[in-house]
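Before the break, one more example. Copy the sequence into your notebook; we will annotate it together after we see the structure.
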Amino acid sequence: MIDSLPSLSAVIREHELRAKKSFGQNFLLDLNLTARIARSAGDLRGADVFEVGPGPGGLTRGLLAEGARHVLAVEKDARCLPALAEIANAYPRRLTVLEGDALVVDPMVYLTPPVKVVANLPYNVGTELLIRWMTPRDWPPFWQSLTLMFQQEVAERIVARPGSKAYGRLALMVQWRAEAQVVLKLPPEAFTPPPKVHSAVVHITALDRPRYPADARVLERVVAAAFNQRRKMLRSALKGLAPGIEGYLEAAGIPPTARAEEIGLEAFCALARGLALKN
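Here is what the structure looks like once it is written out:
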């Protein structure tokens, strides 16, 4: 069925879909690559898929061709809607297209679990969406997995380990509640227009529960304070969190003279638990 649709280059010409910087658009036109991204999300049969920023629909076509039960595609750019409607016609009752902002849409009004999120995210909202999906009020979240395109620098921050320059709040936020790995890297020339940076696809699988117990709000405050002044020793960077912070650090097994990038997730969670007890 995907072969009955015109090429993405033809779709862009027909609908005059010049990528707009204001939407953070960089179109991926190679259907072999969009199919690889779709396959990176695992077996899509029997799952609903939430896609953000489908543009002319290259990845949308890949998701449907790989057997997604139903795809909800949220697109902010009204110019792309006619092209997406053509895909919906080719896959009856399997694609719902919404014109709107993914930051305000509730996908579960339209989807049935299990749900996988698969998207070539617009660079200007990618990190914000990831943070929202990783910090819901209740856990497990609505999604089973996230397969997302980011700037490579952001992707490296998501999977970073202690001791690396990329290690920070984003790595801890994701790895506390999920498994994350980079599954595909793409050069600028894979896109139209080519961005100034390399890109990478990250596959994130939700854990049933966080790796280590901690109050999410306390852990976020601890990690934010630690990495906001990452060059400082933790006894200085965290002194605003509680009187006698050195005692809390030592109780968590963290040397007060250590710096944030040297400390692993388990130790940060232990510190968050200790600080939560003071309230």
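The chain has a mean pLDDT of 94. The beta strands are 27-28, 48-52, 70-75, 95-99, 115-120, 145-151, 178-186, 191-192, 199-206. Try to locate both features in your own notes.
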